[in-house]
Amino acid sequence: MNLKHARILVVDDEPDVLFALRLLLKTEVREVVTEKNPERLLSLLGQQPFDAVLLDMNYRSGQTTGNEGFYWLGRIREHAPTTAVLLLTAYGDVRTAVRALKAGATDFLLKPWHNEQLLHTLAAALQTKTGSTSGSSSKKPVAPTAATALLGESAAMQEVRAIIEKVAPTEANVLLLGENGTGKELVAKALHEQSRRATRPFVAADVAALSEGLFESELFGHIKGAFTDAQASRVGRFEAANGGTLFLDEIGNIGLPQQAKLLTALQNRQVVPVGSNVPVPVDIRLLSATNAPLHALVARGTFRQDLMYRLNTVEITLPPLRERADDVLLLARHFAQVYAARNRQPVPEFSAAALRKLQEHAWPGNVRELQHAVERAVILGAGPVLLPADFSLRNPESATAAPVTAMAEQPLPLLEVEKNTIQQAIARHQGNLTKAAKELGLTRTALYRRLDKHAI
Ligand SMILES: Nc1ncnc2c1ncn2[C@@H]1O[C@H](COP(=O)(O)OP(=O)(O)OP(=O)(O)O)[C@@H](O)[C@H]1O
Questions:
Q1: Nearest-CA neighbor of 141 among 175, 162, 164?
Q2: Which residues does the UniProt record annotate as the domain Response regulatory (predicted)?
């Protein structure tokens, strides 16, 4: 995790330390909360998730044993096992620091600290926490983190969560089905985080975005000199995910030749890098996702049945947002909190009419569309209560006609033209971003970047 996105809790009984750390961290991280009473630690952790806690070792004057620090470290480990804990220890007290690491601390910081060093240590601890450079050998599954919390109280979402809980600890391959923006990638991350592979890598690949030529080298790797641009050997996504989870997104969009190669790799549990003839064994759990009707593609003969059976030991279908109106409100309030915090604004309320508007909208882009709509409303909204006018929602039918008329009447700035063209393409394909991207001649990743740029 990036320092900029982190929520940090600092617990120390010295007001000067709290003041100095708040001053240092507030421009570097997303949120910093300071607390001088360690007794309040657990209730703070219960109120909101923190990515890291900076914890002092001694709270009573004259005490230098660090025992209180160890006690609170243990309690944090029980309540928030994924939160990084950095202990603040007196300079020179290396023995306590080593004991702290053995007791489960992520790292320690010496008082007085150097600001640069502290930021560096904190950033490294956050990296370790997300597992991207983790050297941890623990095989214990971790609880889902806030970043991957799958929200929704509708019967459909409760069922999805129940299936995740059952399937996550197994080695079953899971196929995630559902429209764009329904949360398939989020479910994939939740499956990984609740699995025995949680401390190993989670590697995602958008296979629809890969050209036919790139598919093999991206997934299986290549050796130096395998093709003109291959100036160095490179491991593919399979090898990068070794021991962990590989998530193949948009699996329904790959052609028959790629399907055959993928099936061979899955059957043999090994990959052959491009340009090599030496197979490399791989141990991965495969999760895949698509918004395409995969069973219909099999019936039509454009997707191999034997490959589908490899992928869908378990199938989870994410329901479209329009079928779970109650979740719309819950998610809207959640995103309002997230974006208000991110922009350091008070959390806005929703007027009854605004809530009605959100519930009645068809959400062709599902949760992603709602997320962007709320973000835009939080940033541009006029007051503490969000009104219907703060949400400019387009239904697929109305989106096609309006911008064309506008273009005919007066010249539009280039950015507006780009935005309109994208919106029309998305509307024409009923929110299917893969098809819209294809029509626009963009990769899905490039389309996402533009959606973000235009806050669509
Ligand atoms: N149930 C949910 N609770 C909280 N956030 C959600 C939920 N479902 C989706 N989101 C958020 O909506 C956005 C889109 O979700 P995600 O990328 O997982 O969808 P997807 O189905 O994989 O989309 P695509 O098919 O377009 O790749 C993400 O920012 C995700 O965090």
A1: 164
A2: 7-126
